# Entry
Amino acid sequence: MDIVQVENISKHFGEIKAVDNVSFNIEKGSVYGLLGPNGAGKTTTIRMIMDIIAPDSGKITFTGDQQSGDFADQIGYLPEERGLYRKMKVKDVILFMAELRGMDRGDAFNEIDGWLKKMDLTEWENRKIEELSKGMAQKIQFIATVIHKPELIILDEPFSGLDPINMTLLKDLMLELNTDGATIIFSTHIMEQAERLCEKICLINAGKIVLEGDLREIKQSFGRGSVEIEYSGDVDLIKNSRFVEGCNDFGQYVEVKLNAPEHYSALLQELVETSVDITRFELMEPTLHEIFVQSVRGEGGLSNAT
Amino acid sequence: MRHKVITVIKREYITRVKTKGFVASVLLMPVMMSIVMVLPSLMVSLQHKSDEMKTFVVFDETGEIFSKMQDALDENSFFHHEGKRVYQLIEKSSDFSGNVDTKQQLNQQLETKEIHGYIEIPQDVFDSLQVNYYAKNITNFEEQRAFRRIISQIVTNKRLEDKGYAADEVRDLMQRIRFAEYAVSGKTDTVEGEETAMVRLGLTYILTFSLYLFTLIYGASVMRSVLEEKTTRIVEVIISSVKPHQLLFGKIIGVCLVCLTMFLIWGGCAVLLFMNLNSILGLFGVEGLPPEFIGITGIIKSTAVPAFVYFLIYFVSGFFLFSTIYAAAGAICNSEEEAQQVVTPLVMMLILPFMLMFGLFRAPDATLTVVLSHIPFFSPLLMFMRINVLAPPFWEILLNIAVMIATIVGAIFVMGKIYKIGILMYGKRPTPSELWRWLHY
# Structure
């Protein structure tokens, strides 16, 4: 079942087409990656999902568990640029955000301690936000985003500026929430993170969808049929194989381009029968990063992909 | 949805009230006000209440005024401190006019503070009525006035007697009339004396000043709050729960309540003070009020309550008008410095009537005053001032309040649109023509 259905939404700002006819469905309980370079239209898309701005055309439908009341109460949103009320105390900020999402103040009060403990911030609960370090404030904001147990959690670049320990902590918490049933929209331009976390992705560039669907299927369709072989022996035996189209010798290993992706086992069999001693034989999948660069360039206009 | 607006109001209110700054201003404001009102006269009284002996040299060329001056000084309380005379006169009968040496010598004594001043009474004073007063400090008006009055009286008495009149009789005949003033408003006439007018003026001044000050301070506070939410992007999270205009309203109501809380605390304290004035004075060892003050407290009681009610009406309406614009200004800017520039014209709209008020006080029913007081941005200060000083017809007040409400609704509509778009716009501040386009979204 889909929790969010985005149908043909478009948004203009003056002359600029920020989002152009974008559609996708997000399956309930999944981790969905919304990817694209800076300025691609990710934030605008999220803002439309959040009902902060209205699309010029198209529509967005939610199917939450609780049909009554505000769906906004079922969403947790962590905007890309962080910030909390600097003069407020940690506890008060979290309570305020929870109440805004329709959570009972008493319930929120009971939840806070557990969360602060998880984040290792218990002794900071009565400090003001301005006294916290950037990383601590970011963790507090994460608590404020998810304390009301939303069905849909939208995280815009949640790991930016975090050290590896806190990054792992937040990632684990995110996956924990996902295991407990929350659907997560994860927006980022860092492909390695998306590759590890997302089941489905949507790649946006210049307001348009470039790729959308299951990450594994996308990777397979981008499979370029290359193999890396570490060996000792005569490299010509590899070069002259009838399954090999091209070969790139790196000294320690060769990168081999097959003439058809399915020929890798045939090549392996052939090499085993020769005098070449193989220590590694690896079928290379394209990384999401490569797919990203390739598709965005292919679309003819990559401004500043990282 | 409604309880979320209350959440917003509550946050705005509590984060402001639970600060040391709020407590400090609740306590300090009355102190500062009293200092501003009392300080000048306090300074003067402190000055001549010292028991330091002040010496004045008198050149009495007539030879008959000096001894009468001594007698007059003995009887005048101004020249005494705790029953002891603190002014001492030294007679120099030598010819003063044109004697440069004497003058130089005296000036030197003035410089070394050996003497405080010298007074020259010429031979022909009964015809020329000219007396010369020399001192380092000639802005101590009370001192000069006291000397002038004494010498003047001596001279007048002498002139009257020379013409064959009895000075006491003449003085009795010359008594001034009592001039009772009545402020007519509607059907009731209120007795007004000079004290009433002063109390009225003082009260109006304090209240108008508060109107001006708090609209300025807390309007800017609304603006900063909008800016904080915008620059930290909290606003994006909030407006997915409450609509932008609800957030705007919640904010303004919350801050307005902060001001009202402060006013009610002060108002309540003032009421308590007046109710228990006698026992409070008792604490300082004063038995009851002097009779001339009983009248004044009555006046305060009768004028303060309506004044306070109008104050609240005009504060709330003025605050809503100004803070909506403040909020919109905050929404289109990205930093406080930038916003300060944008609101400068708005601040002018607040300062201008405050400056004008001092002149318009004197002519509260002049056409210019009436016209200005009906300009919505000026109304909170000028109309409020007029109501207190002159009591314009009730329909005029009602009309004015209606116009204010209409203006506020208009401002909320226009500024609300700018606010709604501005809080999600980053980067360059929009130009006026872009703002005009926003209004048509």
Remarks:
- The first helix of chain A runs from residue 42 to 49.
- The two ends of chain A are 34 Å apart (CA to CA).
- Chain A touches chain B through 28 residues (CB under 8 Å).
